[in-house]
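Re-run with default settings, no changes from the original entry. Doing this only to confirm the output is reproducible before filing.
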Amino acid sequence: MEIIAIANQKGGVGKTTTAVNLAAALHYIAHKKVLLIDLDAQGNATTGVGVDKNALTYTAADVLIDDVSLAKAITPSSSGIDVVGANRDLAGIDMALAEVEDAPFLLKNAIKKATTKGKMDYDFVVIDCAPSLSILTVNAFCATKGVIIPMQCEYYALEGVVDLIDTIKKLSELNPDLYVRGVVRTLFDGRNTLAQDVSDELEKHFGNLMYQTIIPRNVRLAEAPSFGQSIFGYEKSSKGARAYHQLMNEVLNRIDEPSQSQAQISTAFAW
């Protein structure tokens, strides 16, 4: 079972869009059994696959705070993807877990317990992280081996990714297997000179950490969540759908490749 975290502490970079549509591509196109875990109190990934976040019996908060079985928190969605949903119950979880000794490992332990007991059988688990470096993001990083970082091609996004990589390197003490699967450019407008310049810089400095797929700024991608659908359910012939299909292919192709070492990551971000 491959566990993939989608993370960037900067908001508005297409993180949830990437989590939902990568999960959907794996389900619709690669015919994989996929679980989407929403670790953002806004619950956008939950509603993005057609689940009412306010009608959930159990959420990710119940799993992390009240030790509810992960299997009990799984809700089927109309998109064909199972989801462990989130809503405002996740807000303030940092304070709730402040004195919990094994707080960084709660999600990892919940997944392990459900898998060991035969309650969970998925090919992929995709985790949508909150736009912060909170205990929720740390839980995702301790549960996964590989992180995918979506980012816009703009200056402030560059600074944010450097901070995120520093966090990933520091967390290698908690999870020695943690590495960056890749960085994906999102919300890309090729007519924008700055976007193109930043993209060139990324190619230059990140090297093989970069996915070659570029996710365009696309109206259909923006519209799909309001209908509770992934791009493949909403408009599978759109540019956005083709881009996430391509990204899925890259993700699958990299699974059998060796993990990026911490040395490679450090070199890529030395600038």
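The two ends are 35 Å apart (CA to CA). The chain has a mean pLDDT of 88.
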